[in-house]
Description:
This protein has seven helices and two strands. The protein is mainly alpha-helical and 224 residues long. The chain is globular. The protein has helices at 32-45, 49-52, 61-83, 119-135, 152-180, 184-200, 213-221; strands spanning 95-96, 102-103. The protein has a single domain (32-221), classed as Butyryl-CoA Dehydrogenase, subunit A, domain 3 (Up-down Bundle), CATH 1.20.140.30. A two-stranded antiparallel ribbon has the order 1-2.
Amino acid sequence: SLIFSNNLSLFASGSRSSKTFKPKKNIPEGSHQYELLKHAEATLGSGNLRQAVMLPEGEDLNEWIAVNTVDFFNQINMLYGTITEFCTEASCPVMSAGPRYEYHWADGTNIKKPIKCSAPKYIDYLMTWVQDQLDDETLFPSKIGVPFPKNFMSVAKTILKRLFRVYAHIYHQHFDSVMRLQEEAHLNTSFKHFIFFVQEFNLIDRRELAPLQELIEKLGSKDR
């Protein structure tokens, strides 16, 4: 199905000894954000992804972006969880998306100067960093009426830019494993939803999307 339930904890039994990713705590039932998530799931079910990503009438843009960012984090967490055993220090000594794109990690606080590291290490840093942002109530307020901070949009853009890199790595380096696991429909639907969302609100710079440009054009052309 298109919708990934929010409480899948594939990493619990995964092969990561250092640290298991825990998906973002569930959006609390009964909250407005939960209603928004349900709305998103219902429109996704209709199969029209371009429509599904649009801001629902009368809703707050920041809140819509927040709810969807949490959802994408959970989806990517789960998708990467299915292939972690194939993404190792040996198979992926650098974090790359094909031969032309290599990523070095820096978060601006703990690691200020970008460091070259293996893909599993990079993704561990990245997902832990995203989780820390999502758990920060001053950045992602879960209570109704608590305002979003002025820098919310720039933080959300950074999160989505980094989450894109995990998709790019999976597509370039692990697509054969995805095919063997028969996960490609899941991956493609998740990525297509993600791309339509970031395009709708102009959240990721076109240059950053370059590693998957051909795929993005292909996915987009089917919906014209």
